[in-house]
Amino acid sequence: MPSWVQQGFNEYAKRMPRDCEVVLKEVLPGKRSKNSDLKRIVRDEGERMIHVLPTKSHVVTLDIPGKSWATAELAKAMNRWMESGQNIALMVGGPEGLSDSVKDLARESWSLSRLTLPHPLVRVLVAEQLYRAWSILNNHPYHR
């Protein structure tokens, strides 16, 4: 990823308190070429994603057909997630999307936008929105 992506993600991740830590676990995408078996690549990516999930995680997929939340609604979801006491796993698929095996694990699906967004931008956007949602829940001035 370009340095601006890591800087942007780190900026918001470091603002989160320890009890609401944002941890990025990257899964290498499958190698794509003109003659690639995309179904197999997506399936294999899904298996690698599931392998790095903490046990008993509340899985939320980030997917275009998911629910579109306003920031205040994300804050309510975040509050619910924190009260559950479980690890929350936000799953972002590769260029062809998420595997069925990952989608099957999801308890909810969140759509950032109906637009197709570049993966580097999604990483920064999600970290910022999580921080913004946390700031709402904690009456922190960032949201204003």
Number of strands: 3
Mean pLDDT, all residues: 92
> In one word, what is the shape?
globular
* SS field, number of helical segments: 5
Roughly how many Å apart are the termini? 30 Å
Task: Please identify the structural class as seen in this structure.
Answer: alpha/beta
Largest sheet: 3 strands, parallel
- Radius of gyration, Cα only, in angstroms? 15 Å
Quote the CATH topology: Alpha/beta knot
Strand order of the largest sheet: 2-1-3
Helix content: 40-55%
Strand content: 5-15%
Order of helices and strands: HHEHEHEH
Text of the CATH class: Alpha Beta
- CATH architecture annotation: 3-Layer(aba) Sandwich
CATH superfamily caption? SPOUT methyltransferase, trefoil knot domain
Oligomer, anyone?
A: single chain
Q: What is the total domain count?
A: 1
Low-pLDDT stretches are none
List the helices and strands and how they pair.
Layout lengths: L2 H13 L22 H14 L6 E11 L2 H14 L3 E5 L7 H6 L2 E4 L7 H19 L7
Helix pairs in contact: 1-5, 3-5
Fold and architecture overview:
- The chain is of the alpha/beta class and 144 residues long.
- The chain has one domain: Alpha/beta knot (3-Layer(aba) Sandwich), CATH 3.40.1280.
- It contains five helices and three strands, in the order ααβαβαβα.
- It has a three-stranded parallel sheet with strand order 2-1-3.
- The longest helix has 19 residues, at 119-137.
- The chain is globular and about 50 Å long.
- The model has no long low-confidence stretch (mean pLDDT 92).
